[in-house]
Amino acid sequence: MTFILLGISLLLFVLSIGLCFIIESSNSLKQKICLFSLSLVFLFLCFSFGVAYYFTGTGFTDGITFHLFNGFKGISLTSFLPQIILILLGFLVLGGIFYFCIFVYSKTSKVKVFLFQFILIGIAILLHPTSHYLYSLLAEYRTPSTQNTVDINSFNTYYQAPSIKKTSSPKNLVFIYAESLERNFLDETLFPNLTPNLKELEQKSISFTNIIPINAGVTITGMIASQCGIPLMGASKYQESAMGGMERFLSGATCIGDLLKSAGYNLTYFGGANLSYAAKGNFYSSHGFDTIKGWQEFKPTLKDQNYKNTWGLHDDTLLDLTYQDFEQQSQSKIPFGLFLLTLDTHAPRGYRNKSCQEVQYLSGKNQYLNSIACADILITKFINRIRNSPYSKNTIIVLVSDHPAHRNHSTKTLNKKKRTNLFLINTHESYYEQNGLIVDIDGSTFDMGVTTLPFLGYTTRSIGLGRNLLQQGLESITSTISSNIENWRADILNFWEFPTITSEILIDPIKKEITIENQDFSFPLYVELFPSEQKFTSQIHFPSPYSNKDNLLLLIQNGDRTSRFFLIDTCQRTNLLSTKKISAPYCLFTPNIHEAIKNKTNITFNRLKSITEPPRNY
After folding, report:
1. Can you give the three-state secondary structure of 467-487, one letter per residue?
2. pLDDT tens digits for 12-24?
3. At what angle do helices 29-56 and 81-99 cross, to 10 degrees?
4. How does strand 336-341 pair with strand 266-271?
């Protein structure tokens, strides 16, 4: 449907511009400016769709929304420099062509013809897929986040609170998130002999062939879905990653880390990138992990700190460090879970490390497939080291893709078949080593954690929305969950455990913190308040940690003018919302006041109630 609308939109636009060559005489200047402006808007929509399609292979996705509102800090834009230059040149060239058609060659001035052109371009803009996408984002802004459009029991019907029961001696877990290494890369009909080692590993493992990502199009969302059985959701789509500003990340959710920690496990996360990116460090520290290391933590211990890709550690370095940790922990009697994330297969071209200088796929011209071929070698080498170690019998290895690959030089080939996540469970059991097992049941990333637990020696009914895909008689609920997930946003927000305000709040401009019900939050922040008897329930919004966008100001400008809220931000930003201009570092803005915060300030519950009451003429 997307491409049908795109085709109709392009046809209407071409017809409108074509009229410039048909009717005699010349346009008035105002008419020309109007048509040219609309043409540039249409051109912007087309380029936006083209960029989205280039990176995702399908158009606008949750991954595009994630980066649109949370910025691109941490992403190597130099990797996309040729594409950026091409886009700018294309925009200038096509803009110049439209200018020539409308200002120089145009032969039409009749009002009726001009109106017809105007209507055609207007319809073309309205039908364009980018317009539909932007409208959906606007709807997110304007839809009250506390509303739920489905039966109140619907979410509770499918969500089950996690708990575990020990059934045998606990085993250790090595859980590998392979960046973008989706299942299609193992398909011999698409990529002959690209991943022979992983194919061999699959024959000795339990392989799940129909795992789809639900609201899990980027790394952090894939991690949360697989470990917590719920999607990462903020008050709206543009808030997903900004929720890392919460002191406790999804504190109300029980994830696999919480379950294993309660069972006495020592938990470790190793990743090559900075922990601050997408708040991965905050997530792991909030859910039972004892050791959490990223680029900044590893950097002082490295022999060559310059040996890295634009994200952080190369995979050969990370996997060596991880194996050293595996050996050390295996010598202890304490069961452990070791989670890690690779990097070198990151789109669009991947990264070549020293261990794979001579590795290439076919002619070697496709750099991204070269990185996949390298991952095939390095990851299986790492797994084989574990399997050949004295600790193999007591270790379960799980290999998953964090999400399907984003746009790369092989996207057209990947799109020839259904895009699914890789999910392999490799055990020491001789039956699976000799026979393997293929599981074709429909599943999602929510099912990964709960399906893994029985191999560690624990049983559980579920983890959140996830189900054990090896459970006999299981009926797949993947399709139902996928179609309802957005309607459950209000229910899923409860896992953030926003504070209920019943007493005073404390604002400290020196520490740049606000204390609400014994929880500290860094500002800037925007807090929505929902009155209920003698208390306020709240929803807290943070600016994106990856960009300088004024997302909090947009929430107020586009929000419900009858709502209660307060904003603590720089006065430079709050001045944009008020006629009263203040020269101070930080300000408090509410529907009733705009004032500087110069010293520690206590705001009583009654004053908070007063200053957040929307004026009748607001």
Report:
1. ECCCCCCCCCCHHHHHHHHHH
2. 766 766 666 555 4
3. 160
4. parallel
